[in-house]
What we know:
- By secondary structure, the chain is of the alpha/beta class.
- It has one domain: Rossmann fold (3-Layer(aba) Sandwich).
- The chain contains eight helices and seven strands, in the order βαβαβαβαβαβαααβ.
Amino acid sequence: MNDSLKGKVALITGASRGIGRAIAERLSRAGAAVVINYASKADDARKLVAEIEAAGGRALAVQADVAKVADVVRLFDESFARFGRLDVLVNNAGIMFTKPVSAVSEAEYDRIFAVNVKGTFFACQQAATRLAEGGRIINVSSSTTVRMMPNYGAYVATKGAVEQLTRSLAGELGSRGITVNVVSPGPTETELFKEGKTPEEIQRYANAAAFKRLGQPMEIAEVVAFLASDAAGWVTGQNLRVNGGIA
């Protein structure tokens, strides 16, 4: 454990499992109090809070559907009610499906944009006025946005929007010392990633990396922890592709 985030408060959306969980664990180890947002995995969120508190950290689980602006506002309100400030926002909550553009329904389109884009946008809106001076916003995108991958059209459209929002917001908030960056993971070994894939498909993704393996959630979390720290104070508007060298 180090104390690079001692005295800071970090809010991580979609933090009950996978990459979000690893980020919450890592920021807690750096000394931050963490707000663990979840949509439906209450047991997982409560378990993570218990683990962090058992290790001497401070944590709060808050249920909120980031696709609903009222829930986003309440998420920030409850975070402030418990910890009194907010220094780091990590927009990790997201959903994904793969299918040809020709087969995407209006309902599917609306839902993926509501969670991935609307949720990130309105969390950033709250952070723009409520984050402490010198704060950090870290949005999670995907390395799929720079690859020509069939059936990812709806998903990469949402993540492309997040990347462009990040660049604009970095310019807006720089005068307050707030940095805004993107982390774009490659294939990462989580339950969500492996769901619906055969072992052969998973290995094919692994082989696309220079190291011939999948990334681990904590490897993504380490980069987020750097961007959340004072060491990254001169880094803003950037997209760090944490993907093992996938082109």
